[in-house]
Amino acid sequence: VQLQASGGGLVQPGGSLTLSCEASGSSLEYYAIGWFRQAPGKEREGVSCIGASDGNAVYADSVRGRFTISRDDAKNTVYLHMNSLKPEDTAVYYCATESVGLWMLCKATHMNYWGQGTQVTVSS
Known about the structure:
Elements: E1 2-6, E2 9-11, E3 17-24, E4 33-38, E5 45-50, E6 57-59, E7 67-72, E8 77-82, E9 91-98, E10 111-114, E11 118-122
Parallel strand pairs: 2-11
Antiparallel strand pairs: 1-3, 3-8, 4-5, 4-9, 5-6, 7-8, 9-10, 9-11
């Protein structure tokens, strides 16, 4: 499966962005999907992950209440809706498929296929 992340950009603090992760080569409906981010000099961290069938999701404490993950299997796409953005949300955001059946842990080491990343910059 190939993943294409898009939707990043420059936004002012308090603003909103929606990231998209579109898959090709395979249907996403059987995969749990995660969004991760990596800021310069920091490790890649899990932002949010969503299960394959029931739509349940988990969030990092730093984004809970501000970000929402969703999926549209008919469009083979997973979204990350980001509101009330803060400068500390600045990072390259990646989407990935989960491979070990522990998607609720939302760990980068459990992911196998990765998109190329999209830059999100929150700055005034």
